[in-house]
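Title: Comparing notes on inverse folding

I've been comparing how different people in this forum approach sequence design from structure. To keep things fair, I'm posting one structure and asking everyone to reply with a full sequence. Here's the target:
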């Protein structure tokens, strides 16, 4: 067996899972590689079960593992599978071009950009993989429509993330000794039944402030599509857009999905793709909405390039007030997609001291990476 190819394949799998918010450590990847190395000729489903165990995945993350494995495709002319002794084109009984855990271990799992022939002789193609790293400014309305199902899957992860807190639960796996002993008082000191605890589903409270000015025109629709997808699975989501004025959109978002819905939203916002006065808009948010919409549980997410035509001192003061009340403030800046970018614009520089994290938002992959931060 090619140990280097096995380690490389498992490392790619671990990276893909982490990008989707699944906690996988390097030690887990080593355990997974050792497990696969022992499964020469094993049934493909056994290999998947071994990966679930070796990577220490929670039951809620199994679907994500299957999605990653099924979404990878084999390279043309891939070598025979060193574990199962079969070609990567026939593993798992799937159509040619689909990968299994053993195909990944064989190193034949790089995404392709070709199109599969009708007879299945050529490797497959994943549109989602191609769109994941396509900059928003190069995307078309057709690309946005194609992203809808990907965005829905990304948002669904937010609705399945477990909290770090333990709460009382009838079906939990963690014993609660303190509550168990208190119960035992009523039964003469006998531990008749153990009280248990479990980690509940995290329900984040989110406030989005989305820049719809001219400099954000190439990104605003894609970012709003992402926010719409999140709002379908998270109940406590508030959405505001701003340019020269601040507009609360929360009540206008039940208008369907896709480009037509975003067109209707854009038509309802004055000065869409116009000027920008971030400081003035944020000052109004602080004055009219901060005390009601933001508390110690709220994550505030700003989606803007930080190019402000107003006075930067006003933006700095407003950001100070928001950061002082929110759980944390995340600023998504599409310009961070360019490695040469530095946050030296006056508006961005004024806001930066009050931001917990400055993150990119130039493609779908960067939005996927945001989801774990919304509950962390």
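Reply #1:
Here's my take.
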């Amino acid at each position: 067996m090619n140990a280097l190819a096995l380690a490389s394949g498992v490392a790619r799998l671990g990276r893909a899972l982490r990008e989707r918010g699944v906690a996988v450590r390097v030690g887990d990847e080593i355990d997974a590689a050792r497990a696969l190395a022992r499964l020469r000729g094993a049934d493909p489903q056994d290999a998947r079960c071994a990966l679930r165990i070796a990577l220490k995945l929670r039951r809620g993350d199994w679907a994500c593992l299957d999605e990653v494995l099924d979404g990878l495709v084999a390279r043309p002319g891939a070598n025979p599978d060193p574990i199962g002794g079969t070609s990567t084109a026939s593993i798992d009984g799937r159509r040619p071009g689909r990968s299994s855990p053993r195909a990944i271990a064989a190193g034949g799992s790089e995404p392709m950009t070709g199109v599969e022939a009708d007879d299945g002789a050529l490797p497959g193609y994943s549109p989602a993989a191609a769109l994941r790293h396509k900059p928003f400014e190069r995307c078309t309305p057709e690309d946005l429509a194609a992203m809808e199902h990907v965005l829905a899957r990304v948002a669904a992860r937010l609705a399945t993330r477990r909290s770090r807190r333990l709460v009382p639960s009838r079906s939990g796996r963690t014993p609660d000794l303190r509550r168990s002993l208190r119960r035992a008082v009523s039964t003469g000191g006998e531990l008749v039944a153990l009280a248990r605890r479990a980690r509940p589903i995290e329900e984040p409270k989110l406030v989005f402030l989305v820049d719809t000015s001219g400099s954000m025109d190439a990104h605003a629709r894609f970012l709003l599509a992402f926010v719409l997808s999140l709002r379908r699975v998270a109940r406590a989501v508030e959405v505001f857009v701003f340019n020269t004025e601040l507009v609360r959109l929360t009540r206008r978002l039940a208008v369907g999905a896709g480009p037509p819905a975003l067109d209707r939203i854009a038509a309802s916002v004055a000065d869409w793709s116009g000027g920008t006065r971030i400081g003035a808009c944020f000052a109004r948010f602080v004055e009219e909405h901060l005390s009601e919409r933001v508390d110690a549980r709220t994550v505030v997410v700003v989606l803007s390039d930080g190019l402000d035509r107003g006075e930067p001192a006003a933006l700095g003061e407003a950001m100070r007030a928001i950061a002082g009340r929110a759980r944390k403030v995340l600023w998504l800046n599409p310009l961070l997609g360019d490695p040469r970018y530095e946050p030296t614009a006056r508006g961005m520089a004024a806001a930066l001291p009050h931001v917990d994290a400055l993150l990119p938002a130039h493609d779908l992959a960067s939005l996927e990476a945001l989801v774990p931060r919304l509950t962390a």
